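hey so i finally got around to running both of the ones u sent me last week. sorry it took forever, my laptop kept dying halfway thru and i had to restart like 3 times lol. anyway pasting them below in the order u listed, first the sequence line then the structure token line for each. didnt double check formatting much so if smth looks off just lmk and ill redo it

first one:
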Amino acid sequence: MYKVTAIFSRAEAERLSTVLAELDASPTAAVAIEEVSKTAWRLDAFCLDVARAAETASILDAHTPGRGAAVQELEDRDWVALSLEGLPAVHAGPFVVAGAHELARAGPGRIPVWIEAGPAFGTGHHGTTKGCLEALARLARTRRVGRVLDIGTGSGVLAIAALKIGATSAIATDLDAESVRVARENARNNRSGRTLKFLHASGANHAAIRAGAPYDLILANILARPLVWLSQDISHLVRRGGRVILSGLLTHQEPQVRRAYLGQGLVLVDRLRITGWSTLVFERPARAKRRGCASGPAGVRLQVEAKDER
């Protein structure tokens, strides 16, 4: 394993993180950005071999000449798990997300979600996961959660949380087989039972996904470009009056995702922003619009600015 590191402004770090993540056949296995001062952010890109690391460094240098991205060989260890060890419990709405040790110290009146550090994305610490949990909690306060589809489930945290807050059933999918294995283990730890089914699948066109439609709630915490690609499929899978919670996008990527879903007839009803990451909530209108009827721009009911708990 190799790590490519460079220092940028926050805007540059966020932009380059998106560039690397959205490359077809990206040379990086994972990308992380972290604030090191008021004006400087460190970008760490993890690569499986030296050739991919060199390619990543070249990409960074091409976009920001003169920064001199550094390449470092890492010991053969599980760096994802190690980076998460000792992280505090995450509180999002009524949820507390943590490993077993931290969860045992959680106070009463919270909904515990047991997620251990591991290779699958979704411990609650990232702004996108936390944003989805907050949006899920808001939704559950006003309506029945019902049948859930979680696309790109990662650790399974969102599907598990949905069941704990009242969902009647959930299907969780991921294109990474290892993530599906980890999510199943997390589901067992949380005693999610037979109401949560996992699929190793890409996109939203799997036969089992179609068979379970329509869904009351669809969750997709992935990346901006795949969210745009999936807009038609997702809008057809959610029932009329149902909600869609989307994340995995930086705030400057909101317009392209918003246009894609508004173009499918969905209405933006909520938005959260957490440390540069956005969570968008859409609703499929209960009644189809009549042809020829004009409609005004969708309104955003509520906007929240927040910071990740560290």
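and the second one:
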Amino acid sequence: MTQAPLETEGDLQLVKEYILLPILLDVLERDIKALGTVKLKMDVVYVKALRSAQDLITADVTLLRKKMRGRGIKVYEQRRTELCIEARYLCRGYQHRFSMLWGLVKAELYKYLSKYLNVDLRSSL
């Protein structure tokens, strides 16, 4: 009898990205709308850069879904609370839970957005 494969670190990373990238898309959309209400000299360039990041993120979400399907992972419930974001998912038939505090979510979103905009957050201003 073969043992069921355990959830791997890669599986958890896929779930984490699946939860975070749609939040990042929402944040970018809100920021684009905010840019429309502020009078800036080069607002078109900023909006175009953010839209380009949205396009890259959307493509990554599509690829992410395909990878998850291939590994037998399905997120079936997400919930946002005052303290954290929670998700329940199946991984090769076994139920799992995932949660992240909002402070960590924010830090991860900074990391992802800096990657998509090709900005090094480690350098000082």
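quick thing i noticed on the 2nd:
The chain has one domain: 9-116.
anyway thats it, ttyl
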